[in-house]
């Protein structure tokens, strides 16, 4: 058989096979693996340049992976200043816009953006303002979004209240937008009702440092004071504003021989559970949109 004859026979066999597949109902389908991915989970935090402070994100990510084994977990920072500073140090992190672009490039169709902010404030609101492109997205609320959340947070941090010295809860606060301090004030009322040696202060805005003198009076009697960060990360505010050696740090203003400090909220399993309950609600909403 000539070379040309062999080519013609092969083409005829190929055509016959194609007809047989069509008649039997067999079709070659496009790989839909990319469209079958479970929704991605993006944990969205302000971020920190503190090396020690960033360790908490590993703890939170690991907890999320255990709770959501069928979903890929991503971390995004909202502070471009933090992202830029880390990049200059060779530490690779992404902002939220970059993270969403990566998800789309990897074929995700849906995502839950879970805020890791403490209160539903200015930084939390910025999350929903980032364009999501082709992604269907829902948003998990900040930690203290409802009165029920505030009571749950107070219960979760109750174990951090010291028995032998006054306890000062360290919050951030917002001096530019006082309405965003309402959740902090509600938390202060709730936690301070549990003990007359418990106080809540803020780095800026309300509740401010008004209760620090009373905490100092009790600390002088006890010879010690205990701080509890009502913050996800123990970054610059805790390391410097509270525990620093400068004369205007909270530790220096109280001026007692011993100052102890609890770990930040990200290490508290009860706090993570509140975030994850909000994530569950957002995931349910996303499934409802898809259905």
Automatic annotation (TrEMBL):
Co(2+) binds at residues 172, 204, 237. The active site is at 172 (proton acceptor). The keyword Calcium does not apply. It comes from the Bacteria. GO terms for biological process: anaerobic cobalamin biosynthetic process. Keywords: Cobalt, Metal-binding, Signal. One of its GO terms (molecular function) is sirohydrochlorin cobaltochelatase activity. CDD domains: CbiK_C, CbiK_N. Residues 1-22 form the signal peptide. The keyword Nucleotide-binding does not apply. Pfam families: CbiK. This is Sirohydrochlorin cobaltochelatase, putative. It comes from Syntrophotalea carbinolica (strain DSM 2380 / NBRC 103641 / GraBd1). The gene is cbiK.
